[in-house]
Specification:
The complex is a heterodimer of chains A (about 325) and B (about 375).
Chain A: E1 4-17, E2 20-33, E3 37-41, H1 48-55, E4 63-65, E5 70-73, E6 76-77, H2 83-89, E7 94-97, H3 111-123, H4 127-140, H5 146-149, H6 159-171, E8 177-181, H7 189-206, E9 209-214, H8 217-223, E10 226-231, E11 234-240, H9 241-246, H10 251-258, H11 298-302, E12 313-314, H12 323-332
Parallel strand pairs in A: 3-9, 3-10, 7-8, 8-9
Antiparallel strand pairs in A: 1-2, 1-4, 1-5, 5-6, 10-11, 11-12
Helix pairs in contact in A: 3-4, 3-6, 4-6, 6-7
Chain B: H1 12-17, H2 21-25, H3 29-48, H4 50-59, H5 62-88, H6 99-109, H7 111-133, H8 145-148, H9 168-204, H10 206-221, H11 224-233, H12 240-267, H13 270-277, H14 282-318, H15 330-338, H16 345-372
Helix pairs in contact in B: 3-5, 5-7, 6-16, 7-9, 7-16, 9-10, 9-12, 9-14, 9-16, 10-12, 11-12, 12-14, 13-14, 14-15, 14-16, 15-16
Chain lengths: ~325, ~375
Amino acid sequence: MSAPVLQVNDLRTYFHTADGPVRAVDGVSFSLERGATLGIVGESGCGKSITCLSILRLIDRPGRVEPGSSIRLGDWELLELSEAEMRGVRGNEISMIFQEPMTSLNPVWTIGDQIVEAVRLHRGFGRAAARRRAAEMLGLVGIPKPAARLDDYPHEFSGGMRQRAMIAMALACDPDVLLADEPTTALDVTIQAEILDLLAELQNRLGMAIVFVSHDLGVIAQIADRVIVMYAGQIVEQGATARLFARPRHPYTEGLLRSIPRVTGKVSRLTTIPGGVPSARRWPAGCRFHPRCPYAWERCRAAAPALLGTDRASRCWLEEEPLRRHESGEAAR
Amino acid sequence: MSSGRGGRGRRPGVAALLPGLPQLLRGQRLAGFSLMALGLSMLAVLAFGFDRVLATFTAGRVDRWIALLTLVAALVAAWWLSAVWAGGRRADAVGGASGWAIAWREFKKNRPAVLGLYLMVALYLVTLLAPYLTSYDPTEIVDDILSVRHLGPSPDHLMGTDKYGRDVYTRILYGARISLSIGFIAVAISITLGTLVGAVSGYFGGVVDTVLMRFVDTLISFPRLVLLITVIALFEQPSILIVVTVLGLTLWPSTARIVRSEVLSLREREFIEAARALGLGSPRIILRHIIPNVLGPVIVAATLGLGNIILIEAGLSFLGLSVRPPTPSWGVIINDGREFLLEAWWVSTFPGLAIVFTVVAFNLIGDGLRDALDPRLRM
């Protein structure tokens, strides 16, 4: 096992509003090795995207990464870098791609202009060299006749092609880490599969680590080596993808997996997790999931469990009292 | 535009004869008529004002040389464009169409706007060619005033003469220079300033936004004319330069507001976030990614503002606060005719009409641009 490229430790991002702090990300830790893919799953509002933006330090006021958090890229502590040094990291060492390929490209510049801009900024390439690099990247992400398409405007690209162009832009400077924030959510299923294949192939070739954020468990299962399940700003469960999906330990993960509609088997009502995500302004006391949890008992209301376990961990008291799962499981049914 | 396609000299005989004819034959009416009108009107200037053109070489005045340059350039452009476009201009480009190409296509459909554009081009040509379009001098007063003062419109004096016997038509031609350049420069100043302030304010938000916008509110809350009069009155002799600067510096707040509101919505678009994630700094994001995207409304504001500033300048000169009287500006000419409105209506009427036509032209263009640059047409 090689040294991790990205190490996030106790990341806490709070938004200090007039009505008190909103704890959007509350103590997230993970590490990522070169060439590995980490999947982050969770409902909307659980802090997935804020985690990504925090890593790039793109949180605007009133939001703030709290002191005590640590984000290490190789030997650098990103939270100690100056804003100018941080600009040298963004797009160069760590890149990010976004959910909406339709709006993540500037409509007034050509695709080529936008890739060239990033390359020239970070690599100090001349105009011609940067253009060659841009064409090479477009070819790499599978756009036919890349040199000619450089002069196209974003509106002349389809959604899938725009996401490819975004990936080309993000990878043009050979970053160590790629943050992918729901990159396939806005695409239809066939294009989604193509983009996932492309990312996997590029990872093989270029060796960057990927943080892949999605609410789509199927997509995560396909691309990630390890998975983090987030709920209410915290990691509730983590582990290797196959094992986590085969034997979920946290009731929330269990609920998520049960809510996937199945094509096979008898048709029944879709299973859902009762209730909604609580407000980040006021997380429930004790375990943050207990109001929606089918197994919850006194202990859950009284005290918040830590992330129990190491490599394969779950933030649930059931880790310590596994027998309760069966008792209340019966009762719930 | 690919000039190589189809060969540029496919019908050299026809193109050489008359500019615009090849376009008309191929059914491109707008391009054809424009080129033909340009070519023919320049020829007419040359034919009717030949001795004035010749006088350029002996008079030794800069504006006459500029006029000559304009004349030659316009003639060359008419024939050259006609020949080049005759080759193989794509009728309606489908691939490679930038936002501007799409906007131009929309603009062309709007007849009043195209008419406004013609008027504007004609105005600027007239301004530049003024010495060739009249044989009188705009400021010279002949010794025998009484025999020439307040003559009505006639073939000799198309728009009559004023109380000093000066040709009103000539003064309007030269006055256009003052009015149009004041309008142009003042708009340039106010648009540049307004766009920068608005973009910075909208992009950074927070305290920066509050401070800048309260300043803008303060400026807007002054009655504009009173503010202008006060500032201009501080100078003993208001030169054109001062008037232009003051106009430019007092009119930017409204642009700043328009730009700010555009930027506020633009800032939330993902490509701005993406640009930040690529490591671009704020100045670069504002200049390269924000401002080009607000250019549409800014251009509209500029065009409409141009008409507005010409009006304000006319008002100021009417009050005697702009250029000094011998120099003709449209407002000054109207003021000259004010006392004699009943005996010599032509002195004030014609510059008034000039202002009306100019302002209408700019407003038509502005409206056309507003429709053509509507962001909903993009994507």
